[in-house]
Amino acid sequence: MSSRRRFIQNTLLASAGMAMPNILSAKEFGQFTRSVGANDQINVGLIGAKGMGWSNMNSFLKMPQVNCVAIADVDQRVLDQRAEDVVKLRGKKPKLYKDYRKLLEDKDVDVVINGTPDHWHCLVLTDSLAAGKHAYTEKPLANSIEECNIMVKAQERYGKLVQVGQWQRSGNQYDDAIKFVQSGQLGNIRLVKAWAYQGWMKPVPVKPNSAVPAGVDYDMWLGPAPKRPFNENRFHFNFRWFWDYAGGLMTDWGVHEIDIALFAMGVSAPKSIMASGGKFAYPDDASETPDTLQTVYEFDGFNMLWEHATGIDGGNYGYTEGIAFIGNNATLVVNRGGWEIIAEKKGGKPVIEGMARVKPEGNALDKHTRNFIDAIAANDESMLHCGIKTGSVAAINAHMGNIAYKTGQKVYWDAEKGLFTDKEANKLVSAHYHNGWELPKI
Q1: Could you give the C-alpha distances from 147 to 2, 68, 74, 288, in angstroms and in order?
Q2: More confidently predicted of 279 and 13
Q3: Region 44-67: what's the mean pLDDT?
Q4: Any idea what DSSP says for residue 214?
Q5: What is the mean pLDDT of residues 425-440?
Q6: Cβ distance 198 to 310 under 8 Å?
Q7: Dihedral of CA 262/243/137/197: which sign?
Q8: How many CB atoms are located within 10 Å of the residue 382 CB?
Q9: Is 409 helix (H, G, I), strand (E, B) or coil?
């Protein structure tokens, strides 16, 4: 049997939760993946094309050296729409697949965009890396702490480049703000606030289960999630508000804001976490995740507060989202609209010079995707603005907050062991796969 055929069979078996009888060498991988030079065209395959997956692909296609050669999605209507979109942009129809594993067999695909729901991130990414593809994967990195750790190990094993879609890392206002925070001019920082108030979010109306829409492979969409009848509320965008597939606003918005907070403060793991909240805004709607939440992370010398709320826009400092670094001399506030410094006053005079709001330059998502392509062309992982370890830190901290909320207890984190000190909390660290799918073994 040829090494290529053996690889494909092993990849399919592993993805379906069956045993992989042997491990392929790097030499065998190289027989059906091509190296990408600095001046080469880069062929991209999109897996999960409905929402951010397409936003990412659209951003990539602004670069003339990038081609969309294949798309995989479980919904035929989405496939047809995105194929039409690519033709309008580039004049050539990509290959279409209902099963992402078929896309990964294509030796012409250099890069995969992983735009699937959160509960699919781990399988798609590890399979993509095993197939010799570089990967741009949507945030949060994974739907559990255990999956985050597995995905980091997979990247280390296969050596391909991974950029996580926390594109705020490519926004110049965040870079400028982080440098100011780390300069010490704010004085001792005792509290960092990160928040997302989402006034546009209305109640998710309760709907009955229904037949699977024509053209949808619903079993494939469920994948490792628990088997349930089809319900429109759990499909496409609104999957975010159900624990089977995602972690609500904490992992949706939280990873963006918490990432910046952690990076600026030079920390990666708290000592303790406690959370309180619930479905206070829309107690009777169909969603499961809390629409109102406050989470306190304890670090040495400061606390970090995450909070989110749906249905209202009245966030901190008058902004719907952002991060505030509260120091003895001043508070720095940064968000997608820019950054500013609000000075403390002593004796009626500001301790340091305040600063009016500085707006960002350019499109951060476009900068983020370009950074990834530049890193691939240079074959230099150190160039990445948000590599997989960075994405893992943000996702793990967000999951910590959800775990504290679920337990209803103040939980303590053992950074050396990578676990909580509480048995009930540690039960929520693990991923649980169903329907014959198994957690990847790296």
Answers
A1: 32, 28, 22, 22
A2: 279
A3: 97
A4: T
A5: 97
A6: yes
A7: negative
A8: 7
A9: coil
- Classify strands 338-343 and 330-335 as parallel, antiparallel or unpaired: antiparallel
Tell me the three state secondary structure of residue 420: strand
Cβ atoms of 372 and 62 within 8 Å: the answer is no
Classify residue 37 as exposed, middle or buried by CB count within 10 Å of its CB (0-12, 13-18, 19+).
exposed
CA distance 185 to 182: 8
Residue 76, H or E segment = helix 76-90
- Rounded to whole angstroms, the Cα distance separating 442 from 435 reads 21
The string of DSSP codes covering 300-365 is TTEEEEEEEEES----GGG-SEEEEEEESSEEEEEETTEEEEEE-EETTEESS--EEEE---S-HH
What is the structure's pLDDT at 40? 85
CA-to-CA dists, residue 319 to 322, 354, 426, angstroms: 7, 18, 35
The percent of residues in the chain predicted with pLDDT above 90, rounded, is 90
Number of H helices, E strands in the chain: 14, 18
Contact between 93 and 410 (Cβ < 8 Å) = no
pLDDT value of position 9: 37
Pull the structure tokens for residue 276: 């309180």
Please give the Cα distance from 419 to 294 (Å, whole number).
Answer: 22
Q: Which of 123, 134, 336, 334 is nearest to 221 (CA)?
A: 123
Q: Residue 251 is encoded by which pair of tokens?
A: 């992992």
Q: How far apart are CA 82 and CA 172, in angstroms?
A: 31
In terms of Cβ atoms closer than 10 Å to its own Cβ (0-12, 13-18, 19+), residue 55 is middle
Place of tokens 């209202």: 312
pTM of the predicted structure, to 2 decimals? 0.90
| Residue 140, preceding peptide bond in cis (omega within 30° of 0) | yes
- Which residue shows structure tokens 């952002």? 322
Mean pLDDT to the nearest integer, 94-123: 97
Give the per-residue pLDDT at 33. 56
Q: Is the pLDDT of residue 13 over 70?
A: no
The pLDDT tens digits for 355-402 are: 999 999 999 999 999 999 999 999 999 999 999 999 999 999 999 999
Separation of first and last alpha carbons in the chain: 24
DSSP element (H, E) containing 274: strand 272-278
Mean of all residue pLDDT scores within the chain: 92
Closest CA to 123 of 97, 99, 103, 151: 151
22, burial (CB in 10 Å: exposed 0-12, middle 13-18, buried 19+): exposed
Task: Please determine, for residue 31, whether its predicted confidence score (pLDDT) is greater than 80.
Answer: no
